[in-house]
Amino acid sequence: MSDWTTLVAAEDLAAALGRDDLIVIDTRTSLSDRAASEQAYRDAHIPGARYADLDRDLSDQRKPGGGRHPWPDAADFVATLGRWGVTPQHQVVVYDAADGALAASRLWFLLRVLGHRRVAVLDGGWQRWTALGLPTDAEVPAPQATRYEADYDARRLLDAQQVRSLLDSGGLLIDARAGERFRGEVEPLDKVAGHVPGARNRAFALNLEDGRFKSPQALAQEFAPLLQGRAPQQVAAMCGSGVTACHHLLALTHAGFDGAGLYTGSWSGWIEDPQRPVATGEA
Q1: Which one of 98, 152, 156, 174 is most buried, counting C-beta atoms within 10 A?
Q2: Active site members
């Protein structure tokens, strides 16, 4: 069986359940009610799935200056992987409520930037899994702890100064927020509206069609005018807090543009320094 490195169909995952080298992780997240998210997992999930909490497991809320979802240190994240029983040899599949836009793509990129290639997001997520009537249960697994040793590829994790350097050198910064937030017309989450000067807007929802990712060919055709011939290493994604930006990183990789970076603090991190410039309107 070939490795899954970007997306996996529900039917293919269902056929693989029970494999010794497979670990499934549920990342369903409600930003308004974290407790309800974990309770939903406890009520029903894909058999064998572990649960990942966006704030507790995929962020480090102890860090100042990193935006609303600060990027966790590698040592802390690999310890979390160890508690889940994940090793570098495992095929990992992550899912959230529907389209991978929240914690699923974030966990996918956390693993990828550690060098873990065998990780994929469940295309269509929990919504498609249940719509197809595929198996679920409420048993919470007790995995045997493992030791995961790895470090991030720091070249793919950018801070504010590195974002400025990227833009000054002709690189591309893609903002994954909805257009009205990018333009500064509304801001439901952060204290300042607008965007990083020089960023370009592409809402993450454009990667999807009927709740699933578009084909690699369609995504490549849509991203090409933005990239304008730039190598992926000249590209970074951002959003409000470094979560939905990972949806673009997944889509870019699925389209054949592997290697782009993440502005980890994103908009909420950028505006923590009032001296940083803010732009509004179209790019």
Answers
A1: 174
A2: 239
